[in-house]
Amino acid sequence: MNLTEFKIGDKLEIIVQNNSESNIRPPQLISQLVDIKDDLLYISIPLVYGEPFRFKRNSKIKIIIYREEKGIYSFTGEIVNMVQRNIIMYGVKLIGEVEKEQRRFHYRLQNTNKLILKSTERDLTETCYTKDISGGGTKVACKSDFNKNEKVICHINIEGEIVNATGEIVRKVKNFDTNNNEIGIKFIEITDINRNKIISYIFKEQRLLRKKGLI
């Protein structure tokens, strides 16, 4: 991935590494790519609780970008200048290579999505609800007695779209308060497109939670 593959309007997640002017040092910020010129990426100034988050010249930042059907990419950048037109933006120079980012496969978003769970080994199907989800698996609450190591087909409702994956039950715990079984499922067969749909959903929900100040 190089500069020509970036698109104006791309949503960016920024992790501060050093040398910020602000006394607030959040682990992550949300910005947007607004221009590409002279081998620099120009990004909009991030906001924290409605206030601009400013960087000093030569600040180092990590930028993470989601690309549909390709996944998550990250790179280190250096702030080289600040430009004020209609909006304040920073010029960022890439340092090093753009790398495929794997960490979101393992970030678990707490959520409640409808999921149809079907055993591949016996005649057992149930409508369940997720308790959390990641690109690598999900935790589900259900009434039926699925077994540990059992293979299951997952039909997960993600914002009205059904995402399919085959998983293996890696743990099962009885919740005596709800009388549900809480089962952990590891995805063992899932297309890159479907995994990236889950990751994109997690990315979107993280932005909303961060905007509300909940994370």
UniProtKB/TrEMBL annotation:
InterPro entries: PilZ_domain, T3SS_YcgR_PilZN. This is C-di-GMP-binding flagellar brake protein YcgR. Keywords: Cell projection, Cilium, Flagellum. One of its GO terms (molecular function) is cyclic-di-GMP binding. The keyword Hydrolase does not apply. It holds the Pfam family PilZ. It comes from Serpentinicella alkaliphila. Residues 7-90 form the Type III secretion system flagellar brake protein YcgR PilZN domain. Residues 102-203 form the PilZ domain. It comes from the Bacteria. The keyword Electron transport does not apply.
